[in-house]
Every structure is written in C-alpha cells, then in structure tokens.
Amino acid sequence: MPIVRSNAYRGLLLAVSLLSIGTAAWAQSSTPTTPTNASSDAESASEVAKKLQNPIGDLINVPFQSNTYFDVGPHKGTQEILNIQPVIPIHINPDWNVITRTILPLMWQPSLQPAQTVPFGTGPITFSAFFSPSKPVDGWLWGVGPAVQVPVISNSTLGSNVWGAGPTGVIVYSKGPWVGGVLVNNVWSLGGTSAPGGTRYNNFLLQPFLTYNFRGGWFFGSSPIATANWLVSGDKAWTLPVGAQFGRVIKIGGTPVNLLVGAYYNALRPQFGSTWQIRSQIAFVF
C-alpha cells in the first residue's frame, strides 16, 4: 500500500542517513588525539562491534531493527516490522551469565484481501534466556536455555493468541576480526486449535552469522534468519534468505551506537511470502 511503502523507504533512508551522519559525528566529536589514542579508539569501537555481533555478548544494548519486506501477499504489498529487542545480561557469578533477549514486533501490514487484515499492531513477544559461561574457551562460547512466546498480539491477524515455549541455543566463535556462529530455536504452541486459520504453531528458526570487522568500528557480514513452519508440508514451509549487511559502531555524546544496513533475497519462501527484504538497525549500548 502507498503509505506502508512510503514508510519503508523513509526507514531505509533514515538508516543510510544515520550511517553517514554518525560517521561525521564520530569524526567531529573526537578531540585531537595522538596516534596511540586514535589507535585505541578504533580498537575500542571494533571490540564493541564484536560484542554486539555475539548474541550472548556481555553487553547491555537496545536494538531497534527495521525489517522491510517486499512483494508480500496476493497484492505484492510492502510489510514493515520494527523489532524492539533489548539484550540484558545477568551475572550469576564470576563464571556464569544469563543473557536475556526480548523481541517485541511492531507491524505495519499491506492488504491481504480477501483475508482480513489490520494496518498496524503488535505481534507476539519472543523472550529467550541463554545460560552461558562468562568467558570463552579458545575463542568458543555457547549458551542454552528456553524460548517463550508471549501472546501480546493486538489483533488475531497478527499472530496466535496462545502461549508457546521451546529450547534455544547458540554457539559463537570469535578470533581476531572474525565473529561467527549459529543461533537456533524451536517454539511449540501450548494448546490452540488446529483447524485452518487455527492458533496452533510449531516454528523453527536458524540464524547463522559471520562478520569481518575492520578498523574504526566498520564491519561487513551476513546474518540471514531462516524459518520453517512445521505445520506446512513441502518446501513452502521454509523461508530461506541469502544476502549481506554492513555497518559501523560510532559514538554519539560518548555513547556507543551500532548502525547497520543489509539486504536479503528469499531463495525459498511460502506462498505469498516476501521475495526480498531490507534490514536496517540502530542499537544503543549501555
């Protein structure tokens, strides 16, 4: 729809502008430094970037991630999902942490007629808690725990009104400029109806990620989010994106901010699924 598409393009323009403005802000806010201090600042930005690329990094941050999906539904509309995803580590003792990750989606929908739709609303919250060692071993770090889906939907067309739960896990390897790994979960509905249009679900998520970090907080990599709906048979159960993203960690008023833009093509997708997407993100680090 025109309004949704306009909002999507504004979101992309904002993300690209933030990358440009942020780079200028970093340069202008930095006082004259000796070569040693300049090198230290660049190293600090890169270290923050690597921690943010680690799903179980010991760093409080609040990302606002915009996902703009194109060619959605029978009328090839544009869907916008803004995920608010605070990450909060909890230190149990010097050796172990629990890293909590919450995702609250705000959804702008295109027309899906003849199916009923609403133009805007909230989707279900996904909460994950990873029990993880506080220090990596030979560059390796892992985390396991529960994933819970909380039915806070504002309309029945934006998701299920049934609670869900399942396991989640992640393994991460970091060495030098590289950060890579994979995050996985599967969430089953705790009840619900199984008729067409019912509220049962059985959803799988697989997110491999690999990023190379340059000096000065710049990075380039890929982090596709593959999903499967096990209640649908055949290859139409899967969404399999392929693409890449880049960004930079900057400082605004002394606070690290992570900026990111990427594009992904859905090589596999369900009927009426998006053909491709733009991902943009701004994350505030505390």
Overview of this protein structure:
With 286 residues, the protein is an alpha+beta fold. The protein has a single domain, classed as Porin. Helices cover 16% and strands 51% of the residues. The protein has two helices and 15 strands. The protein has a 15-stranded antiparallel beta sheet that branches. Strand 12 (226-229) and strand 13 (238-252) form a beta hairpin. 31% of the residues are buried.
Q: How is the main sheet built?
A: 15 strands, antiparallel
Helix content: 10-25%
- The termini sit apart by 37 Å
Give start-end ranges of low-pLDDT stretches.
1-39
Number of strands: 15
The CATH class assignment is Mainly Beta
CATH superfamily placement: monomeric porin ompg
Shape-level CATH architecture: Beta Barrel
Helix count, DSSP H or I runs of 4 or more residues: 2
Which class best fits the helix and strand makeup? Answer: alpha+beta
Global morphology: globular
What keyword list fits this structure?
single chain, 286 residues, alpha+beta, Porin, 15-stranded antiparallel sheet
Please render the helix and strand layout as text:
Layout: H1 2-29, H2 35-53, E1 61-72, E2 77-84, E3 87-93, E4 96-108, E5 120-122, E6 125-133, E7 140-150, E8 164-175, E9 178-189, E10 202-213, E11 218-222, E12 226-229, E13 238-252, E14 255-268, E15 276-285
Antiparallel strand pairs: 1-2, 1-15, 2-4, 3-4, 4-5, 4-6, 6-7, 7-8, 8-9, 9-10, 10-11, 10-12, 11-13, 12-13, 13-14, 14-15
